Amino acid sequence: MNDLEQELAEIAASSGGLRQRADSFLASLRPRVPFDAAWMAVADDRHPRYATVADTGVDDSVREYLNGPVMAADIEATGTHRKQAPLSPSDLPYPHSELRTWSECLIPAGVNEALAVALFEPGGRHVGFLALLYGQKRPPAAEDRSRLAGAVSILGRGIYPLRSLVAAARLVEGAASGVVLARDGEVNVLPGLTTDPLLRRDSTVLEQARVEIRAGRTYTRFLWPSRTQRLGHVRVTVIAATATTPTTHVGVVLLSPPAELRGLTPRELEVLGYVVEGCSNQEIAHHLFLASRTVAAHLGHILAKLEASTRTLAAVRASREGLYVPVAASRDTGSTGSQHMRLA
User: How many whole angstroms separate alpha carbon 130 and alpha carbon 118?
Assistant: First the structure.
């Protein structure tokens, strides 16, 4: 690994946000692979377009054009969305002026040459694009192509949009199933994990996860009834995407074993969900079809098991430790949880 690749690898491994890493990449590249302007973007896996994460020497109108569908179409037309060596317009078998991006945007902006390359995350997924732009008309030097080619895999690793979410997911002990939530409602299996019926696109679990994310909570845990777990519940962990990035991902949802439940019964966990929501005993009794005295008895047991002197403290501890079943699960008559839990 040469000095440039070492420096880029340190940036890729840094804890800064996606934009910060991308800006640092361009700053590090410029002295070693000189350029007049540069554009780095992440691929939108839902739509045929890219979104800028860093640029230099690019004005607003050019940036807007590069973020649009014409640029994405030209990238595909030239095959630059595939794994290959950095491509220059001089490599094309036809004049680059025949491409709309060049004739409508780059040439009028004073750009005559470029080095362009697709970026891929370690698993091989296309995650972004880099274009180094030049006012000169002579093709980029061979040594510049070689230096950029050696850095491509590092750049892809560094701008992988899910990097921080995948890293956070690995910290959830026992997580075997997990999905990534997109802004448009789509759901994808988190790399390295499996899926689960509870994590289907239209599930109440994911509806609850989106509620937590919209409420601004970056890390939330709760329990959910499940027939597949010996103890009757799975632990749901919701991690929101906190970095300000142009990606479509809003967070991840993970399922893991429930671990220690402090001796709380399924009904007490259900009651705790209403306590966390601030419901009174009477409201809980109404929703769960229980007598008020039964709810009071459950609450007494809950306070003792959580070592809490008040219901407010019990709600705080239950929220912090994820020891409750959300109200949405109790109200979801199509839940995978056992129906007898609603009638006990």
Answer: 6
Q: Per residue in 13-47, pLDDT tens?
A: 887 788 899 999 999 999 999 999 999 999 876 66
Q: Report the phi/psi class of residue 124: left, alpha or beta, with left for phi > 0 and alpha for psi in -120 to 50.
A: left
Q: Using one digit for the tens of pLDDT, what is the confidence trace for 154-193?
A: 999 998 877 777 777 888 989 989 999 988 788 888 877 8
φ/ψ of 49, rounded to 5, equals -165, 170
The CA-atom distances, in angstroms, between 187 and each of 48, 145, 173, 196, 253 are 18, 38, 22, 12, 10
What single DSSP character describes residue 194? B
Report yes or no: 287 and 331 within 8 Å, Cβ to Cβ: yes
For the chain, give the longest Cα–Cα distance. 85
- Window from 122-126, 280-284, 296-300, 335-339 with minimum mean pLDDT: 335-339
The dihedral sign for the CA sequence 124, 126, 127, 130: positive
Per the rule left: phi > 0, alpha: psi between -120 and 50, beta: everything else, 233 is: beta
Q: What are the chain's domains?
A: 3-161 (3.30.450.40), 162-259 (3.30.450.20), 263-344 (1.10.10.10)
